[in-house]
Amino acid sequence: MSKFRKDSKKDTPGISTASLPDIVFMLLFFFMVTTVMRETTIMVQQSLPQATEIQKLEKKSLVSYIYIGSPVERMQGTYGTKARIQLNDAFATVDDIPQYITAERTARDEKEVPFMTTSIKADQNTKMGIVTDVKQELRKANALKINYSTRKKVQ
Amino acid sequence: MARRAKGASEINAGSMADIAFLLLIFFLVTTTMDVDTGLARKLPPMPEEDVIQDDSQIKAKNIYVVLINSNNQLLVENEFMDITQLRAGAKAFINNNGRNPESSDNPQKAIISLQNDRGTSYETYIQVQNELAAAYRELRDAKAMQRFGMMYADLNKTQLKEIRKEYPQKISEAEPKNIGN
């Protein structure tokens, strides 16, 4: 017992801060890694609808995205509020979809083409008209595997 | 013992970087952020130009018609229905097995036909798709429980196939047309 008491009488040594940079760097790296760098800037509003029967989208490299929604607020001045389609980094029309699908296909390996999925990321406030048009174009382009992007419903 | 008298020595921080990197790599490997989820569907191939669609060999009683109008209201089998009843309605239709002569013969023949208006909101459409998928999932779960004592999602490939054959998910989306304004 006396051993411990002897120690406590002395000043407690200052906590070493030598490892602080490491911890900070660790956190930095962590956030750097986990932040998903979007390849495309999303220019349409995206509040996805909710569903319970959802499946995970596997093999992200085989997924091509089609964004649908009204332009984000800062772009409404130039593009209005009508729902639009966004492919890659630019607004597009339904007629651009076959070209987009072809481009996506040529970018992949030929063997992987049948497994390619098109993810429709439509805002929940969009009307079905534009979605139906997109679906028709996809059917014409023979890109039949689709995925309606939804969030998990929180009960 | 002799050193302690001089005061506590500095903790060696040389290995701190190693620990930090270990943690970093751990998080790097385990985190999968932003998982994309959704309802997977398969679109029907485009019909050939010169072939006239012939639906006459499918009996009308085997088709469960779900219409959604531009006010997001549902018309199921010519009757107004609230979305909360759709799941039960679809289940009863699929699992009819000929009990009600007006409803489907068996789950293999049952087809759900979904039609929407251009003015239907996407949210409602997804809700309906979700309810229909849920109806099939519940039926499959029940069958899987009865036959294998497991939930549908936990079955192996051959068992999945068997259940899927029993309850094929046939949700047909008709060619787009305008219904109601």
Can you describe what's shown?
The complex is a heterodimer of chains A (155) and B (181). Chain A has a domain at 50-152: Nucleotidyltransferase, domain 5 (2-Layer Sandwich). Helices cover 33% and strands 20% of the residues of chain A. Chain A has five helices and eight strands. Chain A has helices at 2-9, 20-34, 76-79, 97-107, 128-140; strands spanning 50-51, 55-56, 63-69, 84-87, 90-92, 117-122, 145-149, 151-152. Chain A has a five-stranded mixed β-sheet, covered by helices on one side. A two-stranded parallel sheet of chain A has the order 1-8. In chain A, β4 and β5 form a beta hairpin. The radius of gyration of chain A is 25 Å and the shape is elongated. With 181 residues, chain B is of the alpha/beta class. Chain B has a domain at 60-135: Nucleotidyltransferase, domain 5, CATH 3.30.420. Helices cover 35% and strands 15% of the residues of chain B. Chain B contains four helices and six strands. Chain B has helices at residues 16-30, 83-94, 122-148, 157-166, and strands spanning 37-42, 63-68, 74-76, 79-81, 111-116, 171-173. Chain B has a five-stranded mixed β-sheet, covered by helices on one side. In chain B, a hairpin with a 5-residue loop joins β2 (63-68) and β3. Chain B is elongated and about 95 Å long. The mean pLDDT of chain B is 78. At the A-B interface, α2, β1, β2, β6 and α5 of A face α1, β1 and α3 of B.
